[in-house]
Amino acid sequence: MEDQTIPVTVLSGTLGAGKTTTLNHLLCESGDRELAVLVNDMGEVNVDADLVAESSDISADEEELIELSNGCICCELRGDLLDAIGGLTRDQEFDAIIVESTGVAEPLPVAQTLTLGFDQSDLDPTEFYEETGIEPLEGCHLDTTVTVVDAHQFNEAMQSDEILDDDGTKKHLGDLLVEQVEFCDVLLLNKCDLVDEATLAEIEATLETLQPRAEVVRTTHGRVDPDDVIDTGRFDFEEASRSAGWMQELQEPHESAEEEHGVTSFVFEARRPFHPERFADLLDAFPETVVRSKGHFWLAGREEMALMLNVAGRSIRVAPAGNWIATHPPEEREEQFEAHPELEESWDDEWGDRGTRLVVIGTEMDHESVRNHLELCLLTDEEMDADWAAFDDRFPTFEEPEAVEEGEHDRQEEIGIAN
Ligand SMILES: Nc1nc2c(ncn2[C@@H]2O[C@H](COP(=O)(O)OP(=O)(O)OP(=O)(O)O)[C@@H](O)[C@H]2O)c(=O)[nH]1
């Protein structure tokens, strides 16, 4: 059923991608639609809000332009974001609300705040309300999440070593870029005027592989048809959380050799562990043709815990991925078998569920060579019989593996040995 409440669109995108330009275009082209906008800047002064006010007929003194400064709406300003939207829906008659995030904001926590705040999901929001003191909002719904991608900077950003600081949380530019691409309904490939057709087609193919569910729209100076990004009805939290290309690839792996503009992928699987020193060496010099890799792996000497590899451009992170089921008490193991029969089928008599499953997505990537590199990191027959604890292991040590959930970036540690 169509939601009759006010649709909210969230614009994300790295610094300078063209979010403000797109917002201005939407304000100019909104026609009969009354738009309210909410602009988030990290600094004390909201430069973007001033720019929006300057170049459109909307004014910061009026109710329809709200600034949220000195913080980030994906972190400490989550409550302020909901308060501001609550104020807009209570006091004024608007047809749609647009939220412009800062260039370092992660879209998932923003969407989570909005879906919980609007009580739009099946998740239990009680804890969230208690933590934030927020009342559930009525009268609006998260409708479309849009990521603006700078076509001119895309390849450079993916190869960049630049580290961004989002209020203490450090992350690579490529990592943030991939996160923004993987979690959205519409991708605006902006600054198309600065890039040739072949490069555009290649970036488009990468974007479609990273996020197969999103609509990709090419734009110049953010000139998008407002109907493509406002009141589209495209957002669905559960679907958005599951739709990243790497996740789909892990669920239904297929070696995609039929390349589209050189973008291909494969799943690497192994039932013996990586040698910690050789795998660390490989991550230190990971093939540049790999754009994205994600999945869990087994490191010799870490028989309690699975580790998660997260490669996005030049960013390489390793985080705990929970204890192997083989370490669980037998009754819990039985429960897992009932819930996931395939687990029992692939169970190893000696090692249980321990193993490696990584999706690897790349541009002009030599599958054989990347596969070979990974295979050479696996323990040899001789090493399988050696004392694994004696191997040189410079991966970080992690505590409390069970408590960590994928997506909780603040607990993920920069690997330190890569880059
Ligand atoms: N050539 C070209 N320039 C563009 C295009 N879109 C935006 N720009 C320019 O790129 C610069 C950054 O654009 P903004 O809209 O401010 O980017 P933003 O994403 O809001 O940036 P932050 O708020 O700093 O994160 C401005 O100088 C724009 O005029 C485009 O399609 N082509």
Automatic annotation (TrEMBL):
Molecular function, one GO term: nucleotide binding
Keywords: Chaperone, Hydrolase, Nucleotide-binding
Keyword Transmembrane helix attached: no
Disordered: annotated span: 329-348, 400-419
Ranges where the CobW C-terminal domain occurs: 263-378
Family according to the record: Belongs to the SIMIBI class G3E GTPase family. ZNG1 subfamily.
Top-level division of the source organism's lineage: Archaea
Official protein name in the record: GTPase, G3E family
Basic and acidic residues bias spans: 406-419
Gene3D superfamilies reported for this sequence: CobW-like, C-terminal domain (3.30.1220.10), P-loop containing nucleotide triphosphate hydrolases (3.40.50.300)
Pfam families in the record: cobW (PF02492), CobW_C (PF07683)
InterPro entries reported for this sequence: CobW-likC_sf (IPR036627), CobW-like_C (IPR011629), CobW/HypB/UreG_nucleotide-bd (IPR003495), P-loop_NTPase (IPR027417), Zn_Chap_cDPG_Synth (IPR051927)
Reactions mediated catalytically: GTP + H2O = GDP + phosphate + H(+)
Species this chain originates from: Natronorubrum thiooxidans
